[in-house]
């Protein structure tokens, strides 16, 4: 299980959503620690103390993990990545305002593309009532580069007793599900996701992003998951365009699982 979760907080409304989601995500089960990283342009002891008091008061008494604090001054994507390494974070949960512009490059998207650990992005429009019962894993037609990445998804599905639907969207559907890589993926999914694996959906759509969002909205998905090909061990790494767009435009929490 992701035992140490780092939660960036830069005093923005978007980061408030990340804080609330992280607290609910950690819940009452033992073995999950939360570390909040206060981010500002300069030291402000009074403001930092007020934030610590307010965030701490929102944590239930049944929380069994360790609660800790750190600061990042000034804030930057590279600085946050270094902080995650220093603090040995297993995962980051962060809120984001997002952007509807296709050519935008937000700090959240930059972090997701550079991170070598799971990042859970919480859009500012996420419902306040926490739920994580339905997960959609977005896969291409290529063979899964590192099946061990599915273990992180299994841990989450097991923790919340969530079902995982695998979603593949492409402009051509003549060979959906019948290529050798896809057949190997199916065996991997059944093996690694155990009984939490529900089924595989193939959708023909020339606009992959629109296809994902349409499915997520129509089926009340609580978490979209993607295995970016930015740091693949086999084959050619991608530029991360789909990952970047999803990190910026998804209205549903997004989990990226990297090497």
UniProtKB/TrEMBL annotation:
Please give the start and end residues of each transmembrane region.
Answer: none
Which portions of this protein are annotated as coiled-coil regions? none
Q: Which InterPro entries match?
A: Universal_stress_UspA
Q: Which domain of life is it from?
A: Bacteria
- Could you say which protein family the record assigns here? Belongs to the universal stress protein A family.
Recorded protein name is: Universal stress protein
């Amino acid at each position: 299980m992701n035992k140490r979760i780092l939660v960036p907080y830069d005093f923005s409304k978007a980061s408030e959503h990340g804080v609330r989601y992280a607290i609910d995500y950690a819940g009452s089960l033992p073995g999950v620690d939360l570390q909040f990283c206060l981010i500002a342009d300069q030291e402000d002891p009074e403001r930092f103390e007020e934030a610590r008091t307010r965030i701490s008061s929102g944590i239930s008494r049944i929380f069994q993990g360790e609660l800790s604090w750190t600061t990042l001054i000034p804030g930057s994507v590279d600085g946050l990545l270094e902080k995650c390494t220093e603090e040995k974070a297993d995962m980051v949960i962060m809120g984001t305002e997002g952007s509807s512009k296709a050519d935008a490059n937000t700090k959240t998207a930059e972090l997701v593309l550079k991170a070598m650990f799971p990042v859970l992005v919480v859009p500012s429009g996420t419902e306040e009532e926490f739920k994580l019962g339905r997960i959609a894993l977005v896969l291409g037609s290529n063979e899964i580069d590192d099946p061990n990445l599915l273990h992180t998804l299994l841990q989450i599905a097991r923790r919340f007793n969530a079902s995982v639907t695998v979603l593949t969207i492409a402009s051509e559907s003549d060979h959906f599900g019948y290529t050798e890589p896809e057949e190997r993926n199916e065996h991997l999914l059944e093996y690694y996701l155990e009984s939490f694996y529900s089924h595989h959906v193939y959708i023909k759509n020339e606009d992959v992003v629109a296809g994902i969002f349409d499915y997520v909205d129509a089926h009340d998905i609580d978490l979209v998951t993607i295995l970016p090909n930015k740091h693949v061990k086999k084959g050619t790494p991608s530029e991360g365009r789909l990952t970047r767009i999803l990190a910026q435009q998804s209205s549903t929490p997004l989990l990226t699982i990297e090497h």
